Amino acid sequence: MKGIQQMKLKYAANVAAPLLLAVGAMTCAMPSANAAENGQPSRRYELVHEIMMKWGPFVAETYQITPQAWAREMGDLFATSSLDTLQAAANANTLDQMTLAFTSVSSGGASIGGISTQAGDISIQSLGDAAADLVYVPVPPCRIFDTRVAGGIIGAGSTRNLDVTAIGNYSGQGGDASNCNGVGAAGSFAAAAINFSVVTPSAQGFITAFPFNTTRPLAATMAYNPGVIDTTLSIVALDQGPSAAEMSLYSSATTHVVGDIVGYFINPQATALQCVETAQTIDSVAPGATKNTVAPACAAGYTQTSTNCESSTWQMPFVFFSNGTCSAQNNSGGNASLRASRTCCRVPGR
Q1: Bridge-partner residues for 110, per DSSP?
Q2: What is the DSSP string of 297-320?
Q3: What is the pLDDT of residues 322-345, one digit of tens each?
Q4: Do 263 and 334 form a contact (C-beta atoms < 8 A)?
Q5: CA nearest 340: which of 312, 315, 303?
Q6: CA–CA separation, 245 vs 284, rounded Å?
Q7: Is residue 143 in some structural domain?
């Protein structure tokens, strides 16, 4: 900002008079620019004047564009922008911020002294809630309990508490003598996808699976008839407290029950960004010319995090770099190279 302020002071005297003439001519030529808005008929003129006087010297020096030409180029945006947009542009501390203030007005992007920026490139994206947005991990079917093998039949109107997570093997409750393809080693998780099978219940009834140490809901996980062998898949929330058991299983009638896990829902984990840099777009810029070089787009699934600009000469400074665009003017006596690339990142997550 210090360099920009010095440049504006240096050139203010040379461009102030042309700027005043340009602003006056432009606003007179656009009826909407001076139309009454909320009882403030001159507010638009005041804001346009402020923007032109603030940034006109910088644009004139950087791009070698006359104030009149820049005013004409900005005319449509000044005429159609809301007062709030104009105020944001007037308050901007950098040329980049001023440009971005107008992107909501121009669907194809605003053009500021030959500098383009695409509207809609700025967005806020949520990565989700660590407690509610769970990650599903499928596993090959594996038996985690079988009352015919261990624990005995579940009596009518009774509840059996079962261990699902953080267990070395499930043989103690009639299941597989392993951690079931990593299920038992995955740590605490919030829910499990389980195939429940009832085996020859004594009467018509139902079973309800629910988190351990909570009130049993009225809803049934599965209804059954006497003497049948029947199966249903259900996703069951689990208790994630310190107790060994995570799931309770209620049966309204006497029956054996078998449970085979096929997947589980675990809390997401924060992981490091995966970042790559795109190839470079390289443009040749003639002496005295300006150029907007646009970097290749990010690959699918990646989001741009930075714009990278390189110049082959110290006499071609950058005046704008954002959203993959590098803008510069070649002040040297020979051709120069302007190179642009993007850094693109993604969150791998879990």
Answers
A1: 117
A2: PPPTT-EEEEEEEEESSTTS-EEE
A3: 889 999 999 999 999 999 999 999
A4: no
A5: 312
A6: 69
A7: yes
Q: Do the domain assignments include residue 129?
A: no
- pLDDT tens string 98-111: 777 776 444 444 34
Domain that holds residue 19: 1-122
Tally of structural domains, the chain:
3
How many degrees, rounded to 5, is the angle at CA 330 between CA 328 and CA 335?
125
Spell out the residues 6+ positions from residue 324 whose beta carbon is closer than 8 angstroms to its own.
Answer: 294, 295, 297, 304, 307, 340, 342
SS3 (DSSP) at 30: coil
Q: How far apart are CA 110 and CA 104, in angstroms?
A: 9
Residue 10 inside a domain? The answer is yes
Count of all residues that appear for the chain in the document: 350
Give the predicted TM-score (pTM) of the model: 0.51
Q: How many CB atoms neighbour CB 260 within 10 A? A: 21
Query: Is 320 inside a domain boundary?
Result: yes
- Whether 346 and 302 have beta carbons less than 8 Å apart is answered as yes
> Where is the domain boundary, 239, 266, 293?
266
Last residue of a domain, one of 238, 266, 294: 266
